[in-house]
Please model this.
Amino acid sequence: MDERATLTNMSVEAGGTTGIIEPDERTLEYIVKMRGLDAEKCARDLLTAILCEYAAVFEIDLDEIKPMVALPGDPRNGIPIDELPQEVRIDSAYGGSWTGGKMADMTCMPRY
Model:
């Protein structure tokens, strides 16, 4: 569910109005567990969301997306990492968080 939240939030950061992932059984389980809501009512609400009509639907194969790096000036100045014209030396790095940052990611970082 964390990755779904990241993907939908980053849709907005990339210029979209919103990002929506069709709800499924995992969504229902998460909402019931985290919000303490009635499973039957949530299931009806999620079914309504599934049956909505959208102006456009974009399906993206996430396996086809290459890692990106932002060039100086603006995070929207990004290129695929394998298209960097040369090796880039890193003098300092920020080990923090942004839209996609989760505590689970931080606990897996090596300690120096």
Summary: The two ends are 30 Å apart (CA to CA). The helical segments are 2-13, 25-35, 39-50, 103-107.
